[in-house]
Amino acid sequence: MAFFLETLIGGLMAGMLYSLVALGFVLIYKASGVFNFAQGAMVLFAALAMARFAEWIPKWTGITSPVVATVAAFIIAGAIMFVVAWLIEKLVLRHLVNQEGATLLMATLGITYFLEGLGQTIFGSDIYKIDIGMPKEPIFAFESLFQGGILINKEDVIAAGIAAALVVLLSVFFQKTSTGRALRAVADDHQAAQSIGIPLNRIWVIVWCVAGVVALVAGMIWGSKLGVQFSLTTVALRALPVVILGGLTSVPGAIIGGLIIGVGEKLSEVYLGPYVGGGIEIWFAYVLALVFLLFRPQGLFGEKIIDRV
């Protein structure tokens, strides 16, 4: 039982991180109808910016406190992601409004390779580290309930807590602020929102900037766990099944889908792996997503699209 709970908790922690990346997809798709394939590159670019500025700030300013340098690097990287998101919307996607979905997809693919190349040019191509003070050593919990206790990774718990806090903040932003209500109105019906005076271009800029901040937080956490390297862009590919499972238009769906995928990957690797061979954790999520595409293509919480002819 203790081992099962260890696996379950590990899956929930991983699922929260998948959800964080999936949120970027959902936010942009809800407001503009664009499937942002560049979200993984945005995560990488943000992580590179934070890692490198955390190195450069002490050299440039003489600051010796790593905490101050990390906070300053986070603020600078956040400002950079605001600028990057604004430029993407203004220079690329604003000119592709009402184009075919394939055109928009190709545009985001182009943005992906541009951000990867620009990140390598500005920040370098080595493997960098982000130290945000998360403890690496595991702990044993519930020792009074289970013999030997349950092994829990502190870093995973803190990372999941950060992801959950960001999700709560986004939920409050969407539900309680006038800008958030405008975003939801645009998501429901672009033309109706525009007819009552909601400026679509400004809303899209806000959405892309929020997605940039989400990418920064995701990049910070993943970079702290795995190191900042160019394989970080593949995190977006791990989040695709989450989006399919939860629904492209649902923020709660991104969270629930991430938790299901995270737990499913861990449990399948431990309990099914010995029977079907290793590596099931790599393809399990995609098989599950394929099943949903066949039987419920809108996902668990997505809106069912009805075309009337």
Structure description:
The chain has one domain (2-229). The chain has 309 residues and is mostly helical. It starts with a helix and ends in a 14-residue tail after the last helix. Strands 1-2 form a two-stranded antiparallel sheet. Helices cover 72% and strands 3% of the residues. The model has no long low-confidence stretch (mean pLDDT 82).
Secondary-structure topology with pairs:
Blueprint: H1 2-32, H2 39-61, H3 66-91, H4 101-123, E1 138-141, E2 150-153, H5 154-176, H6 178-188, H7 190-195, H8 200-226, H9 235-246, H10 251-276, H11 280-295
Antiparallel strand pairs: 1-2
Helix pairs in contact: 1-5, 1-6, 1-8, 1-9, 1-10, 2-3, 2-4, 2-8, 3-8, 5-6, 5-8, 6-8, 9-10, 9-11, 10-11
What is this structure, in a nutshell?
With 309 residues, the chain is mainly alpha-helical. Helix content is 72%, strand content 3%.
- Residues in β-strands, percent: under 5%
Radius of gyration: 20 Å
Count of the separate structural domains = 1
Report the strand count: 2
Count of DSSP-assigned helices: 11
Instruction: Give the strand order of the largest sheet, numbering strands 1, 2, ... along the chain.
Output: 1-2
| Poorly predicted tracts of residues | none
Helical percent range?
over 70%
Largest sheet: 2 strands, antiparallel
How does the helix and strand content classify structurally?
Answer: mainly alpha
Indicate the mean pLDDT: 82
Measured between the Cα atoms of the first and last residue, the distance is 55 Å
Q: Helix and strand succession?
A: HHHHEEHHHHHHH
Shape: globular
